[in-house]
From TrEMBL:
Record GO terms (molecular function): ABC-type transporter activity; ATP binding; ATP hydrolysis activity; ATPase-coupled lipid transmembrane transporter activity
Protein name: ABC transporter ATP-binding protein
Cross-referenced CDD domains: ABC_6TM_exporters
PANTHER family, sorted: ABC TRANSPORTER, ATP-BINDING TRANSMEMBRANE PROTEIN (PTHR24221:SF397), ATP-BINDING CASSETTE SUB-FAMILY B (PTHR24221)
Species, as recorded: Saccharibacillus brassicae
Membrane topology summary: Multi-pass membrane protein
Keywords (A to Z) from UniProt: ATP-binding, Cell membrane, Membrane, Nucleotide-binding, Transmembrane, Transmembrane helix, Transport
Span of the signal peptide: none
UniProt domain ABC transmembrane type-1: residue ranges: 22-315
Length: 610
């Protein structure tokens, strides 16, 4: 029942390709039926030979030749139908595969960021790659096979009943027992539970293997201790145990089914011999008996296929369930009539936020009644102790998560009322951890503005201080990141991300520790370039190096999800609170870095943005 509903879901996913799938199934049935024709021809020939026993001249030679050609033609047609069916099913399968992957990728781009944090990227990759791939295999191969594995035995048994109902009935006994075993084998709650465990154990083993390989630097540094290997080994052991359990559970039923289906022939023999013994001179029955012996292996083959269909269906239903779960994940609600702000002040009005899932009871607030305005043309800096909520504030601006209460607006328009695409157009964001795509450096920068010319890309790269190191690469801007061992350092990747953000030239610029990995010399250069470019924009900067935001028009000190202090650098120093302590600590750390040499009090050697 469960499988059936998943099969119908699968057909729903197949959507407009149903026509091709039906054609593939029909062609598969036709091919199966045509493959029986040679047996019938043999039957007819044997029949004629028996009837003409002892009188070869009584044989109708041309009629026999025609029968032979009919058998040949039927075989050729069967192969043609098989080929055409396979073409239809493969075309349908690959179109479904393509459409599903596109739909899935579009959907996951629209769901909330919370989903991506909850769902390991490996799992999503597995759904988009492996689950979809299995559907392709099922549709291309197993679906037509299933249809013919059901239709062909039905037609054959019907035909055998017409020839001799007694022998046909006897053949139905092992078939019935075999199918009942199949249903029990795959349908029981125990079997389904085992199968689910098997799948989970396989995934867990994959995930821990990836984790182990990814964590190799740490493993090497700290030595390959039992603990570093333990989780992976436990996962492998669990997988082994569940595989053995499953084999144990299915082995009896599996063997019995295979034996029963493979030996239909042996069921036909005793009853045939018995009936023949009763009518020793019945030539017609003898010929029918021969046909039964010829046809029963053709009956076994599709029935054995049914066994694989059962396991294929189970595998694909798991994938379908997962794909469905992704599609069931709600997308970020888009406004019915999106509004576009005409000014770009950012306002946070009494914003309360926690990371609990939508619909779940409120968790510990990460942001507690945050209120501020970041004005256009000014730089607002978020500083404060680690874990205070700075990055969360920046991420909420992009609507990665929905606020629990309060409102965030751009130019007076609540971000809920701005369409996601427009919102992304308004904001350039350089994240703490940069992600570069497996593409050329130029394409990675141009991502900020697809219409930009090569000269624009180079200009942005110059300002972000990455032009010179790009030029030093063998393929320059055409170097593919990640290919042939071309990897960039953290600071270089960040500078590419800054170039990308500059090229986008959006009215709002958010820099979350954008130059954290950059060396002092390059940071100086970048800050100089940025200072030019950020004029007239709303700039939100998160920085731990306080010297870089000293010139900000507004500094918000975020501690424990609240704004502990706010003001300009000098004002905050005058308060004698957290900011002043942070500033002193920062100065002390900088002094320590240069070997304790005395620095000028005004900090001229520091780099100042804006
Ligand atoms: N996806 C998440 N799910 C649950 N909690 C989170 C998530 N991201 C951050 N947090 C928690 O929210 C709090 C604020 O984190 P946030 O990253 O905003 O701090 P931050 O001030 O930017 O820190 P840092 O300076 O170290 O980057 C922290 O307690 C953190 O553990």
């Amino acid at each position: 029942m469960r499988s059936k509903s998943e099969l119908s879901v699968l057909l729903d996913l197949a959507g407009s390709r149903k026509g091709l799938l039906i054609a593939a199934s029909l062609l598969s049935i036709v091919s199966g039926l045509l493959q029986i024709v040679p047996f019938i021809v043999v039957y007819r020939i044997v029949d004629q030979v028996f009837r003409a026993a002892g009188q070869p001249e009584a044989l109708d030679g041309p009629a026999l030749t025609r029968l032979g050609f009919a058998a040949l033609a039927a075989l050729a047609a069967a192969l043609a139908a098989l080929y055409a069916g396979a073409m239809c099913s493969h075309i349908a399968a690959f179109r479904i595969l393509y459409a599903l992957r596109v739909r899935l990728s579009e959907h996951v781009a629209k769901v909330s960021m919370g989903y991506h944090v909850r769902t390991p990227s490996g799992e999503l990759k597995k759904i988009i790659e492996v689950a979809v791939e299995k559907i392709e295999k099922f549709i291309a191969h197993q679906l037509p096979d299933t249809v013919s594995a059901v239709a062909l035995p039905l037609v054959l048994i019907g035909y055998l009943f017409v020839l001799d109902w007694r022998m046909a009935l006897i053949l139905c006994v092992p078939i019935g027992i075999g199918l009942a075993i199949q249903a029990r084998m795959y349908g029981s709650a125990d079997a389904q539970g085992h199968y689910r465990d098997f799948q989970h154990a396989g995934e867990e083993m994959n995930a821990t293997a990836v984790e182990y390989v990814r964590g190799m630097p740490a493993v090497k540094i700290f030595g390959i201790t039992a603990a570093s290997f333990l989780t992976f080994r436990q996962a492998v052991d669990r997988y082994r145990k569940i595989s053995l359990d499953i084999t144990d559970l299915f082995k009896g039923a599996y063997s019995l089914f295979a034996v029963l289906m493979g030996s239909l022939f042996t069921f036909a023999v005793p009853i045939g011999v018995l009936l023949l013994g009763r009518h020793p001179g019945d030539q017609a029955f003898a010929i029918t008996f021969i046909l039964f012996l010829l046809v029963s292996p053709s009956l076994s083959a599709p029935l054995v296929k049914l066994m694989y269909v059962g396991s294929g269906l189970r595998e694909v239903s798991e994938g379908v369930r997962r794909i469905q779960a992704v599609f069931n994940e709600p997308i970020v609600a888009e406004p019915e009539a999106p509004r576009r702000p005409s000014t770009y002040d950012i306002t946070f009005d009494n914003v309360v936020f926690d990371y609990a899932q939508p619909g779940a009871p409120a968790g510990r607030p990460v942001l507690d009644r945050i209120g501020f305005t970041a004005r256009s043309g000014e730089m607002t800096a978020l500083v404060g102790p680690s874990g205070g909520g700075k990055s969360t504030i920046a991420n909420l601006l992009l609507r990665f998560w929905e606020v629990r209460s309060g409102e965030i607006a751009i130019g007076g328009v609540p971000i809920r009322e701005i369409g996601t695409e427009q919102l992304m157009d308004l904001v350039s964001f350089v994240f703490q951890d940069v992600h570069l795509f497996y593409d050329t450096i130029e394409a990675n920068i141009r991502m900020g503005n697809e219409a930009a010319s090569h000269a624009d890309v180079v200009n942005a790269a110059r300002i972000a201080c990455c032009h010179s190191f790009i030029e030093r690469l063998d393929d320059g801007y055409r170097t593919v990141i990640g290919a042939n061992g071309t990897y960039l350092s953290g600071g270089e990747a960040q500078r590419i991300a800054i170039a990308r953000a500059l090229l986008k030239n959006a009215p709002i610029l958010v820099l979350d520790e954008a130059t954290a990995y950059t060396d002092a010399e390059n940071e100086h250069e970048i800050q100089r370039g940025l200072a030019e470019l950020i004029r007239g924009k709303t700039v939100l900067v998160i920085a731990h190096r306080l010297s870089t935001i000293r010139g900000a028009e507004q500094i918000l000190v975020i501690r424990g999800g609240q704004i502990a202090e706010r003001g300009r650098h000098d004002e905050l120093l005058g308060l004698g609170g957290l900011y002043e302590r942070m500033w002193r600590a920062h100065r002390a750390a900088s002094d320590w870095k240069i070997g304790g040499a005395k620095r000028k009090e005004d900090g001229d050697d520091e780099i100042v943005l804006a």
